[in-house]
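Human: Cast an eye over this sequence-structure pair and say how the chain folds.
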Amino acid sequence: MSVLSEKAAIRSAPEPSFVEFVVIIAFMMALGSMSIDNLLPAFGHIQHDFNLSSANEVQLILTVYMAGFAIMQLFYGPVSDIVGRKPTLMIGLVIFSIGSVIALFAPNFELLLVARLIQGMGAAATRILSVAIVRDRYEGREMARVMSFTMMIFIIVPVFAPAIGSLFLLFGTWHMIFVSMLVIAVAIAVWFGKRMPETLHPEYRMPFSFDRIAGGAKRCLQERATVGYSTAIGLMFGGLMAYIGSSQQIFETEVYALGTMFPLVFGMIAAVMGIASFVNIRLVRRLGMRRISHAGVCGHVLMSLIMVGCAFWFDGKPPLILFALLLAACQFLFSLTMPNFNTMAMEPLGNIAGTASSMIGFYTTILGTIVGLVIGQAFDGTVMPLSIGYLSTGILSLIVVYWTERGHLFAPHHPDPTAVIEVGH
């Protein structure tokens, strides 16, 4: 098919409205988050069913999932640049569904970990393709605005996911949670297949070539903004992964012993991240990505420092309300940085959006998973390791951002609103 005929086909394809586009992308991204958060209340049940000796061992359910998620991101981006976004997403959803089925029938913890690895390998497609599709249609501040809308909806998932997981546990076993994952994956495949046109610009479609893929990877490494902001994302994501991995032990069992109230507290803290995404939507066009995100990372360091001080003052177990407020403040500031950091990392690479999304996603996920594992496995029955972890990742992120901007923080690069790039134009 010629470039002209491909453009005509894209124009004639049914196209979702802006609202539906954002919701579809948000649900794609949410599949990965849901596959983590709604399992949290089941950690104790899984530990009991498989006779695991340590609650820290159950955290491997998250680690292997994120490992598969990271590795396959190298695959989906280049493939989507070659064959298109839609078929690549469908491949990922099929792999995710296979992992969900294996998890349903896993007779031991080792096979459950294999199933989680496969799930992560499939879910990686939703992360990579969601960013690439948004970049296909938008750039600059407008892309940051769309990503913030998407993140605001995406945050709803961790607000309700643990409660939904707890609800499944009331009426059945943890296996029901994997049934829900399978159902949602199928629903996304049907919805996306019927409503979303192919967004890859015909002139950006690449023939298969290892040299082209290597060239795209090289370009990512040559862009200072891409390397710097990707590193900052990975570091801060590591803090978030440590929190998610140890949240059940902190709130439900060992530190605050909230029991069935754990999903409520977890959801309230997650809701603050949604509010931050809304604030970013309102401000990004006026203030710019750099001013907002640089203020966010500086504030994150300050709040983390206060959290460490409180952890020391109260011997690792500060009052629940105080710790929850400080943690919520950190999450709020985290959510002011992530969509903007991601946009600035992708900004120079519009003509290789799929490959760039893969490289950035792989790097940030691997870095975040390793950092999160180190912090999470240091859990000692107090909030001290998590607090120090937040402070350390925040400081390192700020240093990296300072290097990326050559010492010029808060300086907008694009004072004028950026034009929207629509499909087929």
About this structure: The first helix runs from residue 3 to 12.
